[in-house]
Amino acid sequence: MKRRKIPNHNSAFTLLELLVVIAIIGVLATLVVGVAGVASRKMKEARVKADLNNLITAIESYKAEVGSYPSDNRLNLSDHRVHSSRNPLFYELSGAVFTNGNFKVLNHDEIVNSGHLRSVFGIGGIQNSSRDPRDVPYRRFNFKPSQFKELDPILANGADIELLAVPVKGPYMLKGKVGEFNPWFYDASTTNRHNRNGFDLWAEIELGDKITVIGNWRN
Question: Distance between CA atoms of 181 and 188, rounded to whole angstroms?
Fold first, then answer.
C-alpha cells in the first residue's frame, strides 16, 4: 500500500514573504546609497580643506620671505567674485625668472610678460622673481597639474594665463581653455574681507544639493 505524500508548505516562500524580503532589501540599498553619499561628500570636503591648509602655509611662508602677502587682482573691478577669482597666486607662489623682458614661471613651462599680467591682474610683474633662479625670494610651491588650469584665452585677453583650481565643482565655474573649472578665491586688499590684517582664501563647492564655503576664516 503506497503512502500518500504530504506536501511541504515550508519549502517555498509565500508571496507575502517575498514582498517583505524585497522591501527589506530596498531599505538596505537606500541606507547603503545614503552612507556612500555622505562618505563621498566628506572626502571631497576633506580634500578641499587639505588644499586650503597647504595654500595658507605657502602664503604665510611667502610673506615671511618676501615681506608681504602675494598681490590679489588690482584691476578696478566692481564684481568681487571676478576680482577674487582671477588672482595671480599661481605665479607668485610658483616663482619666476625674469629674462629678456619676460617672466619664465618655475612651476610650469610658460612665459608671461608684463602686458599679460597687467591686462588680467592689473600688476606689472611677479614680485617673487629674480634674474637668477637661485635668488627667487620665496622657495617655490610645486603645484600638481590638477591644481591649476588655463583660463580661456578670450577671458585672458588672448594671453596664456593659469589660475589655481579647486578639485571639486562649485557654483561659480570659470571657462578654461579645456572645459570649466572651479577657481580659488583670494582677497588681500578690499575693505570688506574677513581677515583685515591678512588675506581671505576660500573655495565654494557643491556637496550634493548644498553649497559649502571653505575659507581661512571658517575652516
Answer: 22
